[in-house]
Each structure stands twice: as structure tokens, then as C-alpha cells.
Specification:
about 425 residues; about 25% strand; 12 helices; alpha/beta; globular; four-stranded mixed beta sheet
Length: about 425
């Protein structure tokens, strides 16, 4: 299936954003490990969170996380501590996403985990039991989800956990998010440089927890306002907080440079046009928020703003190889990207021959569909998006929200 997306002349919209899956997936773990689990309000309804809820509530011993990378990492740690025998698997792409560093770290504190197919990759067989804990050294430059997975189960280890991170830490705001949520559930976490110490203790929470809206989902509306030719464009997004726990709230500052003003209101934010301030080429390090690299790269190309993006090495091991996917699909629109040392993405402002009627492949990656759909605002003939259903991974109502905002969406076979 394909969608042909055509943009409206004017961009005026009121959008209820999905809740944060990053917060939802973490708080599901802290809540179930709590002495008195509480009600979680505004929980995410995306595919990734459905997988987590199913795994944590149904007590099935064979769990298919499909394409949910966060669920694979978090459940590997959680099930290692939960008495029983468990099998954890996923899609073919998931079976090619490395998990060896996390498995080795868990084994070092007593976990019993076997690989069922390729060494270092899912599927996994886990014999869950109480972990001893202790000292662990983990490479911080590969995936923050490994670190978060270890931290989330650290309080229930017999000796707690002292986690030393070596190298450059990527996506650190997600680690900070994990620690903030653990503290909201009454857990003490000590931080000293790149070392985190979690004594053995009990999760607890006295109040119900409300999940805030997703800043990652908001980024696509920022992109739309940036790309809209309507100087009076205005998009109101509900549920976003100025003091957000989410690192992706940094898009407020990034998109101000790309011509989008943010006004915080009691219920969320209002986006409008402003004068772009970023110098060309845009040089930005995405080491703390790699999931936003696709959105900003597509936006810059469509605004004819050359860029050099550092710190994007983790994009190689996401739902797809996002560096190659961006290079392939932006070339269809006439933008030749360069990849240097697997960690730098560059567009020098030159052009290549664009496809006459481009079809954007999404590679089973929700962020490819979400970040490329807004380019229709710069293409009179619209843009075709392959496998549009992939957005259900994080933003199930995206196409409905676009139609609500006046976009036309035609389904093609």
C-alpha cells in the first residue's frame, strides 16, 4: 500500500499529540516493579507500548516484540529478573539488531541468557531469577537503551548496581529520563561523572502518573510549519510541557533557527513562522537526540540549507540503517548526501537529478514515513509514501491528523 499526500494551501491546525512512548515504556517497568503499582494515565497507544503492556500483563512465556527495539532491550533486562523461562523474539530486522553488549552486562550480574540463532542477536532464551548485581562496565557509545535497561532493574538486584560507562555517551537525555522516572518512583540513584550507583531498594509511588505528550511526534509538525509557504501558518499542539522530561524538547531551539517560533500555553504550544537564524551550513551534534536527525535533515534539504550533522552513528542500528535510508530517499528528491566514518551526515548544497514521481520507501521505519510526509508542502504534485502503516509504531493517528489539518491523502495500491 502507498499514500499520496498532498498539502493544503493554508496550514492551520489543532492537534492532540500521542503521549510519549519513551516515558510510557519506562514507567511501565518502574510501575510493575513498584511495591504498590499505580494508575498510569495517558499511556501511549502505539505499537511499541502495546508490546510492553502485553508482555508485562499476559505472562506469556514466548514474547514477540515485533519491531520494538525499546521493548526488546527493556524486556531482556526485566525477564532476566523475573522467575521463569522466557523466549524473546521479533521481526527479521530485530534479529539483526545487536544486543550482545546488554546480554554480556546482564550475564556479568548473574543473568542466564542464551542466543537461539546468531551469536549476539535475538531471539533469546532467558531463565529468569534474582540477579546478584555488582560492578558493570558498559560502552556508552552504542545505545542508551542498554544503559536504561540495566538501570531500571538495578534496584531489585541483591547488591544493587554500580554502572561505569566508558567512551562517549550517546542519547544521554534518555538516560537522564530513565533516572528521573526512577526517582519519581522513590529510587535513589547516585551519579558521579560517568558512573551510576543504584543501591538495592524498593520502587514505590504514592500518586498516579500521567504521561506527557511526545516531543518526537511534535517534531513533524515543526517540520510542517518550517516547510509551509503560508506565512500565517499556525499549529497548536496539546500536552507538551516546557519543563519536559524528554530530551527531544530541544527541537524548540533547533527549529527556531529554521524559522519556527514556539509559544508555550497552559495546554501545550503554538507554532508559527519566524525569521530563520541558523547560519549555513548548519553544524549540529545529534549525539544526545539522534532520533531527530531525520526530521532536521529532510527539513534542511527542502529549505536549501546545507548541513553537517555529527553524532549520528547510532542511526546505523535503528529500525533500519537510517543513514543509508536518508541517503537513498533524499537522492530521489535531488539531494546527494554524504556519510563520513559512519558518524557524520553531510549535504553540501549541491543537487542531483530527482525522480520525476518519487516514491519514498520507509524500510519498516516509522520515522522515515513521518519525516518525509511533510515534504509535500514543497511539492505541487504531492509525495508518495510506501508502507504508510509503519507510523503505528509511535504515532498511530498521524495520517488522520494530517487530514484534520487539511492534507489530502489518497490510498494507492
Amino acid at each position: 500500500m502507498k499514500h499520496l499526500v498532498t498539502a493544503p494551501h493554508d496550514l492551520i491546525a489543532d492537534i492532540t499529540l500521542p503521549s510519549s512512548k519513551s516515558i510510557s515504556n519506562r514507567v511501565l517497568i518502574t510501575n510493575i516493579l513498584s511495591r504498590q503499582p499505580r494508575e498510569i494515565e495517558n499511556i501511549s497507544v502505539c505499537d511499541d507500548t502495546h508490546v510492553m503492556i502485553s508482555a508485562l500483563t499476559r505472562n506469556e512465556h514466548e514474547i514477540d516484540v515485533k519491531g520494538a527495539g525499546t521493548a526488546m532491550r527493556f524486556l531482556t533486562a526485566y525477564l532476566s529478573c523475573k522467575p521463569g523461562k522466557w523466549t524473546l523474539t521479533g521481526t527479521e530486522r530485530m534479529k539483526n539488531r545487536p544486543i550482545k553488549l546488554l546480554v554480556n552486562a546482564l550475564r556479568s550480574v548473574g543473568a542466564r541468557i542464551e542466543y537461539l540463532e546468531k551469536e549476539g542477536f535475538p531471539p533469546l532464551r532467558i531463565a529468569g531469577h534474582t540477579l546478584s548485581g555488582g560492578e558493570v562496565v558498559l560502552d556508552g557509545s552504542v545505545s542508551s537503551q542498554y544503559i536504561s535497561a540495566m538501570l531500571l532493574v538495578a534496584p531489585i538486584m541483591v547488591n544493587g548496581l554500580r554502572l561505569h560507562l566508558k567512551g562517549e555517551i550517546i542519547s544521554k537525555p534518555y538516560i537522564n529520563l530513565t533516572i528521573k522516572l526512577m526517582r519519581k518512583y522513590g529510587v535513589i540513584v547516585y551519579e558521579e561523572g560517568q558512573t551510576f550507583a543504584v543501591p538495592p531498594q524498593q520502587y514505590s509511588c504514592m500518586d498516579d502518573f500521567t504521561v506527557e505528550s511526545d516531543w518526537s511526534a511534535a517534531s513533524y509538525w515543526y517540520e510542517m510549519v518550517a516547510l509551509s509557504r503560508d506565512e500565517n501558518a499556525e499549529v497548536r499542539l496539546s500536552g507538551l510541557q516546557q519543563d519536559s522530561l524528554q530530551g527531544d524538547s530541544e527541537i524548540v531551539r533547533i527549529f527556531e533557527g529554521l524559522g519556527v517560533n514556539t509559544t508555550f500555553t497552559p495546554t501545550g504550544v503554538t507554532l508559527s513562522k519566524c525569521k530563520p537564524t541558523l547560519r549555513k551550513p548548519v553544524i549540529y551534534d545529534f549525539i544526545t537526540m539522534p532520533d531527530m536527525a531525520q526530521t532536521v535533515a529532510v527539513t534542511c534539504c527542502m529549505l536549501d540549507i546545507p548541513f553537517i550533522f555529527n553524532g549520528v552513528q547510532s542511526l546505523r542500528i535503528k529500525e533500519t540503517d537510517r543513514l543509508e535510508a536518508l541517503k537513498n530517499e533524499l537522492a530521489k528528491l535531488g539531494f546527494p548526501l554524504l556519510i563520513h566514518d559512519d558518524r557524520i551526515l553531510e549535504w553540501r548544497g549541491d543537487r542531483c537529478e530527482a525522480d520525476a514521481n518519487p516514491l519514498i520507501n520507509t524500510y519498516e521505519d516509522h520515522r522515515m514515513a513521518l519525516s518525509f510526509a511533510p515534504v509535500t508542502l514543497r511539492l505541487q504534485e504531492g509525495i508518495r509514501i510506501a508502507d504508510p502503516e509503519v507510523v503505528s509504531k509511535s504515532y498511530p493517528n498521524f495520517w488522520d491528523d494530517l487530514q484534520q489539518a487539511g492534507f489530502q491523502i489518497e490510498t494507492l495500491e
